[in-house]
Specification:
Layout: E1 10-11, E2 24-25, E3 29-37, E4 51-59, E5 73-84, E6 90-96, E7 108-111, E8 114-120, H1 126-130, E9 134-143, E10 146-149, E11 164-167, E12 178-185, H2 211-214, E13 228-231, E14 246-248, E15 275-277, E16 283-288, E17 296-303, E18 306-313, E19 316-323, E20 328-329, E21 333-336, E22 346-352, H3 359-363, E23 369-378, E24 384-394
Length: 410
């Protein structure tokens, strides 16, 4: 039986030189790519002859882009049929230029954070051509510029970040290409290991009692349903019986068609329940997953001098990032282990707003400063989903606006 390789997307980007944390977005950053088969977007593995779309999420900083939507992002991809080396790694056995498929529509800028790239491998069968079910994609995204293939550079031989360059973007925030590689697996119906669905950040509406819809019961917290919730810190003077407030956290700025306004979110009624005060302490971001987001699949595992087939649950890897300067995340990665029960399939990420008197706190505008969050979940077999969220950071209460202390009895 044919072994299926793990399909986590591998992204290559320039390293930060200013000690910026991995989760901080201070310039454009590739976050993730999702494969959607045409007519069946829940499927992550296309079959021979099927067309599909690669959706790419680009985290953007708070610097306002100046160009119209259609000029915000550009992308290009080089397709390679992958061969397998003795150590199990892949190499580019045969490159198929996209020009071989003239009927493919151009890439579409969905929002100023996302671009969708239509693709197909045509009737090329990687199992017959190179003895593997994997196809390699080498690509790049340019921000406020155009991607150009570098002549003389060979996919699979030269580094991925040397295959493309950005042109016509001298005024761009980032002038270098955001290069990436990705492995796509072809789904063969006759293969015991075939088929893989994308995980989802959305709740399954048919299962009202799931953790995603009903929430989780955590000691000392309110129980609130939703795929994303924000757990607020407990007030210092609150009674022991008072539970920490939990707020449902929907996406109110999905697929923005123009640059976001990062300076007056407090005046937006959509953020009435999604405001976080400076110096208010550590909040918790909880992300819940429906049972259907973690498939059970068969995999080959070595044991002594033989290979055995095991059934196991998908382990979800979540990456998260946020625009810089108005708070700190507890890290870049979280995991929902494969052995986690469905009623505890939840990731928890701390978020702390700026401390009073800090440089970041002083930069918060009176009308509120927006923080943009980016989340990507991978099932580590090629299935991906991504989404965004936003919070409004507001100044701490001025002393004269703080609740008055109760008067003492004479």
């Amino acid at each position: 039986m044919k072994k299926q390789m793990a399909l986590a997307a591998l992204f290559c980007a320039a390293c930060n030189t200013d000690f910026t944390e991995a989760y901080e977005v201070d310039e454009p950053k590739l976050m993730g790519a999702r494969i959607e088969v045409t007519g069946a977007p829940e499927r992550a593995w296309p079959r021979v002859g099927e067309s599909f779309t690669m959706r790419v999420l680009v985290a953007r900083s708070s610097k306002k882009p100046s160009l119209p939507l259609g000029k915000q992002l550009d992308a290009s991809i080089s397709v390679c049929i992958g061969g397998k080396l003795p150590d199990g790694s892949l190499f580019c056995a045969a490159e198929i230029p996209l020009s071989a498929f003239p009927d493919l529509p151009p890439a579409k800028v969905v929002s100023f954070e996302e671009i969708a790239i239509p693709l197909t491998f045509g009737d090329a069968d990687p199992r017959k051509l190179a003895g593997t079910s994997n196809v390699l994609l080498f690509g790049a995204v340019c921000v406020e510029g155009t991607v150009e293939r570098v002549k003389g550079k060979v996919a699979g031989v030269d580094p991925a970040n040397e295959l493309f360059r950005c042109v016509d973007n001298k005024q761009a925030e980032l002038q270098e290409p955001l290069a990436f590689t990705n492995t796509v697996t072809i789904d063969y119906p006759d293969d015991e290991f075939a088929a893989n669905l994308n995980p989802s950040f959305a709740c399954d509406s048919t299962d009202e009692g799931s953790i995603c819809n009903a929430g989780t019961k955590n000691k000392g917290e309110e129980t609130v349903g939703g795929a994303f919730v924000l757990v607020r810190p407990k007030e210092d003077d609150a009674k022991e019986s008072v539970k920490r407030a939990v707020v449902a956290w929907p996406e109110v700025l999905a697929q923005p068609q123009k640059a976001l306004d990062y300076t007056d979110c407090a005046e937006d009624p959509r953020f009435e329940a999604l405001q976080v005060r400076v110096d208010s302490g550590e909040h918790l971001i909880r992300i819940r997953f429906a049972e259907s987001s973690r498939e059970t699949y068969k995999a080959e595992r070595p044991r002594y001098n033989e290979t055995i087939i095991v059934e196991q649950r998908e382990e979800l890897l979540i990456s998260h990032a946020a625009t810089k300067d108005f708070g700190q995340l507890g890290g870049y990665f979280s995991i929902v282990p494969r052995d986690a029960d469905d009623d505890r399939a939840e990731a928890e990420i701390p978020f702390t707003p700026p401390k009073a008197g800090s440089k970041e706190a002083k930069a918060v505008t009176e009308a509120g400063s927006l923080v943009r969050f980016y989340f990507v979940v991978r099932d580590q077999r090629g299935g991906v989903d991504f989404t965004t969220r936003s919070l409004c950071i507001v100044p701490e209460l001025a002393p004269q606006l703080a609740p008055a202390a109760p008067a003492k009895d004479p």
